[in-house]
Amino acid sequence: MAGDNESRMEKTVNALKEEYNTIRTGRASASIFDKVRVDYYGTPTPLNQVGTISVPEARMIVISPFDKSLISAIEKAIQTADLGLNPNNDGKVIRISIPPLTAERRKELVKQAKASAENYRTTIRNIRRDGNDALKKQQKAGELTEDQLKDETDKLQKLTDKYIEEINKVYEAKEKEIMD
Question: What do you get for the CA distance between the two ends of the chain, in Å?
Answer without folding.
Answer: 42
